[in-house]
Fold this sequence. Notes:
By secondary structure, this protein is an alpha/beta fold. Helix content is about 40%, strand content about 15%. It contains 13 helices and 13 strands. The protein has helices at about 1-15, 20-30, 70-75, 120-130, 150-160, 185-200, 205, 220-235, 270-285, 300-310, 320-325, 325-340, 355-360, and strands spanning about 45-50, 50-55, 60, 80-85, 100-105, 110, 135-140, 165-170, 210-215, 240, 265, 290-295, 315. Helix 5 runs parallel beside helix 6, helix 8 packs across helix 9 (about 270-285) and helix 10 (about 300-310) packs across helix 12. The protein is globular and about 50 Å long. The mean pLDDT is about 95.
Amino acid sequence: MLKNFYRLARPALFALSPEEAHEASLKALECGIYPRELTTDDRILSQSVFGLEFKNPLGIAAGYDKDARVPDAILGMGCGFAEIGTITPKPQSGNPKPRVFRLLEDDALINRLGFNNGGHEAALRRLEARQDRGGIVGVNVGANKDSEDRTADYVKLIETFAPVASYFTVNVSSPNTPGLRNLQEGALLDDLLARVIDARERVREAAGDTPVLLKIAPDLSLAQLDDVVQVARSRRVDGMIVSNTTIARPSTLREEMRAKEQGGLSGRPLFRLSTRMVAETYVRVEGAFPLIGVGGIDSGGAALTKIRAGASLIQLYSSLVYKGVGLVDDIKRDLSSTLLRTGRDSLSEIVGADAATITAEDWPVR
């Protein structure tokens, strides 16, 4: 039924610009116009990750609900968790429009939004208002483009949101804020994570224990990934998210002219690269902390591949643009049936099962 509804609604949404369609979907969720979860998730999909109890492994990636407008609707549709943001301390408008582009033949998007959001105060009020409703809601934090001390921006947001965040994602991997990805480099990353973890510890007594995750780009070299994982492990982060959008443009893209737009590429063409990076990260982490896998997940099979590469949890975004919210139930159903058919008792049994094999394959086409 949901598939049929979205099949009818999609032409109207795609007649709008990507940002107009995005805003229309947010307003619908704010008005309560969305499919409610009608059944209880199979317990086989539940996991304890980062010290949090997830009823299923599916979440919506940051970038959809930038200002914490609809986390309860996202949870109500059957997701195991929501992640809001990226939030910056001060409001900012982002980069000039147009800045989001559909690559229809590739089931992909390119965006150069630039952390457009309403600033921390409005998002904080919304999260405070829903705090008693439960559910896992992560807060993705970033730095203002014009900030003189970007690390201080992250610290301020950790201290401010700790009482209302289920977990934090430290976003240093967006390609759309000049210089931001430099924070993934050794000494800069070490200083950032040291100050972020210190901020988390300072507010722990009042706010409780809030896991801190690091979100990385898929465009790191393996030597750079070695350094990032070493710093993350030494600073004892609670997990990593792999990965953000890519600045690469695979030669397999069909929409060659649209692919020339600047920004981060997401959707199906990112799947192989992001999955390879999940596996590469998994083998380097050596069980020190769990991973969330993101990038190109558009089916139960793709979700299973990402999990077997090393992801304990997964996030969707671009695929929902092309397939609609019915995809959430489809993936959960496929995961449950696969686990039951293969005699597994828990999703955690297959996390990373194919990581070694994937890292031995040829590098994905760039």
